[in-house]
Amino acid sequence: MEIPRRSFLKYASLAAAGSAAGIGPFGALNAFAQSGSSDYKALVCIFLDGGNDGNNLLVPYTTSGYQNYASLRGPLALPQSSLLPLNGLPNFALNPNLPELQSLFNTGQVALLANVGTLVAPITRAQYLANQVATPTNLLSHIDQQGLWQNCQQSTTTPAGWGGKIADALQGGNSAPSYPIVTSVAGAQIFCTGNSTNYSSIIPGSYGQVQCTEPTGCEARLEAAQQMLTFNSGLTLIQADNTLTSAAYNYSTALTNAVRSASPMATEFPATSLGAQLQQIAQVIQVRAALGTGRQIFFASLGGFDTHANQIVIQSPLLVQLSQAMKAFYQATQELGVSNNVTSFTMSDFARAFLPNSASGSDHAWGSHHLIMGGAVKGGQLYGTYPTLALGGPDDMGTTGRWIPSTSAAQYAATLASWFGVADANLNSILPVLGNFQTRNLGFV
């Protein structure tokens, strides 16, 4: 990981980021750290940054359903002949750029979740239009909805995310592992931030020693940084920064030593951004025993989905990248013998409006469709309720096909957290809006 002089402390702190204040302690992580591999579990979030158009992810495939879809989508409609049919789900088909995920769906390792979004409470079109039920803050805003997907609350004022709060809940009785339960390969994220646990942020392929990019004076600066770790000042802020910097070096050292001692994996990953991220995650999973973690949570992201113009041209290669990288990652979990222990899932800011705009793109919307992958997934099925594709219809928040979610992101998260080992009694504190929904487990895993 190459770090310029001015960025050294920033990156050191990022690598040890954690609590709401950024300086939370890294305690004994969880009661599963020393348990056998059969009890190991990992969650892998793949965030589709910008708002993926779920309307072109999962498409009606019956004659009447497709004709309605095509007449409303206009230039955004995918040719019916190009769609990928799904075994056991004859009324729908996948985007033609997802053949690897089609194969995994048809063999039972991938499930689909329809029309899920950032709900505060169940809401109908009539209630929304009459402003009778609370809705997420700044609905349709990128930064706010990204944050709300990651913290499952009504606003982003709370900086802790549900991935980090799961790590908080699973702290427990064994000695502290040498590496955090939560790792981001996509920079600082609300999802990863806990109230009392740290997370690691690493650049894929660059988990080794911190390096200096300046032409001169590198050794002196790195030596000074190491000395700073032992500097016992009387100032709380400096002591906190020392702790973070020390944690950054410790995490880096632990991961570097573990990965260097591991055999190279045979699985080939695509040479893409998401491919590199998921390959890095697979490597961290591979050395989980050396790191002392029996539970791991990861965050990866793929950007570029804000398709206000030329959507077909832009979205297609992104979905190719998604499909190929997810398939390679699943194969890697098979190679490592943990395919039943690792569950991957997608999230995104929001969907796109069903009605195209004048630039052959689509604008910000709300509920969307998502993918869940893993050996423990009850795949080959569609969960949730697919919306009625009618402009101004019962599921439209307006007149352009912005679907009101029928399933909450909190229900989605609760289902994953329950599988991961979080007690039901702890779910409401991790997911504060969950209590507003009758169904707490969607049953896909």
Report what the structure shows:
The protein has 445 residues and is of the alpha/beta class. It has one domain: Alkaline Phosphatase, subunit A (3-Layer(aba) Sandwich), CATH 3.40.720. The protein is built from 13 helices and 14 strands. The chain has helices at residues 8-15, 63-73, 99-106, 125-129, 142-151, 162-169, 218-228, 236-260, 273-286, 288-291, 311-335, 409-420, 424-430; strands at residues 2-3, 41-48, 58-60, 84-85, 92-94, 110-117, 182-184, 199-201, 211-212, 295-302, 342-348, 368-373, 382-384, 407-408. Strands 2, 6, 7, 8, 10, 11, 12, 13 and 14 form a 9-stranded mixed beta sheet that branches. Strands 3-5-4 form a 3-stranded antiparallel beta sheet. A two-stranded parallel ribbon has the order 1-9. Helix 3 (99-106) packs across helix 11 and helix 9 runs parallel beside helix 11. It is globular and about 55 Å long. The two termini are 36 Å apart. The model is unreliable at 1-37, 209-215 and 236-240 (pLDDT under 50).
